[in-house]
Design a protein that fits this description.
- The complex is a heterotrimer.
- By secondary structure, chain A is α/β, with parallel strands linked by helices.
- Chain A folds into 2 domains: 137 residues, 3-Layer(aba) Sandwich (Rossmann fold); 152 residues, Aspartate/ornithine carbamoyltransferase (Rossmann fold), CATH 3.40.50.1370.
- Chain B is α/β, with parallel strands linked by helices.
- In chain B, the strands form 3 sheets. In chain B, strands 1, 2, 3, 4, 5, 16, 17 and 18 form an 8-stranded mixed beta sheet that branches. An 8-stranded parallel beta sheet of chain B has the order 6-7-8-9-10-13-14-15, sandwiched between helices. Chain B has a two-stranded parallel sheet with strand order 11-12.
- Chain C is an alpha/beta fold.
- Chain C has a single domain, classed as Rossmann fold.
- Chain C has 4 helices and 7 strands.
- In chain C, the strands form 2 sheets. In chain C, strands 2-1-3-4-5 form a 5-stranded parallel beta sheet, sandwiched between helices. In chain C, strands 6-7 form a two-stranded antiparallel sheet.
- In chain C, helix 2 links the parallel strand 1 and strand 2.
- In chain C, helix 1 crosses helix 2.
- Classes of the chains: A alpha/beta, B alpha/beta, C alpha/beta.
- Chains in contact: A-B, A-C.
- Chains A and B meet through helix 4 of A and helix 5 of B.
Amino acid sequence: MPRNPQLSANGELQHLLSIEGLPRELLIKILDTAESFAGVTERDIKKVPLLRGKSVFNLFFEGSTRTRTTFEIAAKRLSADVINLNVAASSTAKGESLLDTVANLSAMQADIFVVRHGSSGAPYLVAQHVKPHEHVINAGDGRHAHPTQGLLDLYTIRHYKKDFSGLAVAIVGDVLHSRVARSLIHGLTTLGVPEVRVIGPQTLIPAGAQGLGVRVYHSMREGLKDADVVVMLRLQNERMSGALLPSAQEFNKHYGLTAEKLALARPDAIVMHPGPMNRGVEIDSSVADGPHSVILPQVTFGIAVRMAVMSMVAGGG
Amino acid sequence: MKLLVKGARVVDPASGRDGHGDVAVVAGRIVESMPGKPDRVLDAKGLVVAPGLIDLAARLREPGYEYKATLESEMDAAVAGGVTSLACPPDTDPPLDEPGLVDMLRRRAKALERARVYPVGALTVKLEGRQLTEMAELAEAGCVAFSQADAPVADTEVLWRALQYAATFDFPVWLRAEDPWLAKSGVAHDGEVATRLGLAGIPAFAETVALATLLELVRATGARVHVCRLSSAAGVALLRRARHDGLPVTCDVGVHHVHLSEMDLGFFDAQCRLQPPLRSARDRDALAAGLADGTIDCIVSDHTPVDEDAKLLPFAEAEPGATGLELLLPLALKWGVQAKLTLAQTLARVTSAPARILGVDSGRIAPGAPADLVMFDPQALFRVDARALRSQGKNSPFLGLELAGRVRATVVAGNVVYET
Amino acid sequence: MKLPDAEGLCEALARSLKPRIGPRTAMIGIHTGGAWVAERLHAALGIGEPLGLMDVAFYRDDYHAQGLHHDPKRTRIAFDVNGRDLLLVDDVLYTGRTVRAAMNELFDYGRPASIALVVLAERDGRQLPICARHAGVRLEVPAGMRLRLKRDDRGTLALELERAP
């Protein structure tokens, strides 16, 4: 089995491809570093000169304005130059392979590639073929991983709950197709959260789920009992009717987060969602806009976390 | 031509013979002893001489896929791997559903004077699973069996009728058991690794559902079916019960599947993107054991040359397949050592057993048998190196790894077609 | 080589700084040693504005060679920097690079009226045109050694020499 491609020979982060395989100390270091960046965004001059002169290429093969925008903001706050490539519309549509696209950009002196791709594992392929001084950050690959989202979720939980060691965290919805869920699960288990639960119909829970270290619930009422953190996953349109689910309405009735179901969790439970939300499907507006919701702070934390990740991969000889 | 292979350890799985001696060849056939002086002597001191390997599945990529490999390069690979007879699946472009194509392939292969090529014809037109091919015509052109390669026959009525028709003429049908809807978008075994890596999975029951259907149809039609590329423990169990019930089925396993499992995918290694997928360690162990206890008849290479670009893609987009002709012998030997079998028992899985399924006279060392031989050093180690492979397919999960078993010479019909 | 008592140096520094304290004065300590010294001075001098604490991790000039190799702490400056007479406090002034980084960071917060550098110990080895207005002690450090400020479990400060890496 080859060495974890994210870490250099002396254990430093050179790419961020997945939370899986990162040691606990490194995860905590990322969260701590993000903490120190949080102060930057509160000043007048919201920039530090760390990545001045460096080029960050946002290579998005899957459209996503919000994730791309937060990466762009984070890079600019580090004083980097940002180039956005919406590849769906350009050379790859003409049949250029992933690696050819990367090689061309590399010839334009890139330092960091932020890659979002529809196929699991694509960022690993890129990382295997970039030059030594180039770094790859996975902004989401297929259903495999979304490590910066996982990290900002961990940061959010730490911000409100302080201590991971006594928590029950429930992740609800389409776990089968969710890279957000996989990344968060790896992060939670690495940081020692004792109870990680996934809740959903059998059709949306993957075969090997228990191997990830989670407890599977098909009843939301059971799964939410005394939960400290409730993470709602987005249900994509194409899943809502077909062989996986009959309708959004039936899904909402049994797996949507309403105020009534939330009452089964702990009184001080927080509600999270990676966004964008389908109001009335996986989450009711009263909950999304209610006192338990930390969905908007998640977005703010996301910038500091991405600043931390970029500065950690790019630094060092 | 009179050829004498001298001083070898002669291993003949068909008879169980394993001892020192010579093998004498006259006019392309093995003879009891050499009459007079030989024209050529091969010094086999310290080496094993066995029947040439018979590989029931090797893609030669012609016609149609010449950019991936050519008949020349793959035939070179075959004899370098000690393979003297091979059957090639019908998924060429166009598929082998016309007698003219089959005839042309056989002629081209024969002209190259290397391994013997046995084309397997398409069971349905264009392999689309709808209309039967003219199996009798194709058989006359040289097809030894009929197959769908990796293309499904989704319509069970068509499958039933195809088996009935084949049974009419007693044509063997070679089929992979995989339910097309359950396997539809899957690229890896539906288990822990696919879940972790976020890859769409093909559950093991995609194989058993299709296998159960196939076995029922065999029961109903009496067709001679050979099940290709078993991949799961449950599949082995089903086969075992079918054999016990006396059904006329045989089966094979790909040489990669007795060694590798889903764990070998590592960080999305596209060299491990195979059809059928590499399943769990438990499945792998059951396949290896099934091969050892005879439930599975033989090992095949499932040789599939893939060009480099088609593997330098994200896992799900990469083309499935591995190169295998040159690694069939060392990988078979490795399996045999792990299964604690004798050399003769091990080699049976790549000589006498496939010979029986193919219905040919080679695959044995006995007076009168065709002189197809492989001379090899079972202890010689080598590192699997892309540059050293003769196949144009350099795609292998074993690249860079060390294996034991080097071919020193290969003889087909009494001619030395390869030697180092 | 005998080193002076750090606590005594803090007291002496506080005495020499007393005349400088005015309505526009504010103090900022550089993590980690400068923050310890600044805590002493801030308390002793009774400065009105809360003590500012600064981590220069994001302004260092060795990021590309070393990366973010220590744990960055959060810079917290609770007052408006504009128009202030700032006392910038560090433990040891050596090459001057930390102070350069601190000044760059300070100017991203605003425009102070003045900055005076206050250090517990000023040693030889300056690589940039930086000098301390107030230094508790000036000394030469033997070759191959490094001057460090340590704090024990009871919070007592002490200067120490150790082998440079």
